[in-house]
Amino acid sequence: MHQAYETLPSEIDSKCDREPVQRAMVTAKLFGIDGVPFLIAPDGRIFKGAPDSLADWLENKPAVKAEAIQPPSKAAVVPPDSAKTSNAGEDAKP
What is the pLDDT of residues 68-90, one digit of tens each? Predict the structure, then answer.
């Protein structure tokens, strides 16, 4: 995508009303909107970007992606040194 900036006017017309743009920019800043699309559901949930299914998102259905894989939690990962220590303690007899 290429924008032809040379076709834009170099000076702003003094009769141009900047208030709507200024209001939109202030409102976006207040809501933390830094890009579009930015969605706000009736229940208050927000989404930055475009959901895979707008209808599902509005109905608060979980997104389903076949390729999505959840990383293991940190609690489930046991460092190799601690695994040796815990096994040694189990095998030792009093």
Answer: 444 555 555 555 554 444 444 45
Q: What 3-state DSSP class applies to 9?
A: coil
Residue identified by tokens 């997104």 is 63
- Which of helix, strand or coil describes residue 87? helix
18-43 per-position pLDDT tens digit? 899 899 999 989 988 888 888 888 88
Q: What is the DSSP string of 27-60?
A: HHHHHT--SS-EEE-TTS-EEES--S-HHHHHTT
Q: What is the pTM of this model?
A: 0.42
What whole-number distance in Å separates Cα of residue 67 and Cα of residue 53?
16
Cβ atoms of 58 and 47 closer than 8 Å: no
Q: Give the burial string for 15-39 (b: 16+ CB within 10 Å, else e).
A: eeeeeeeeeeeeeeeeeebeeeeee
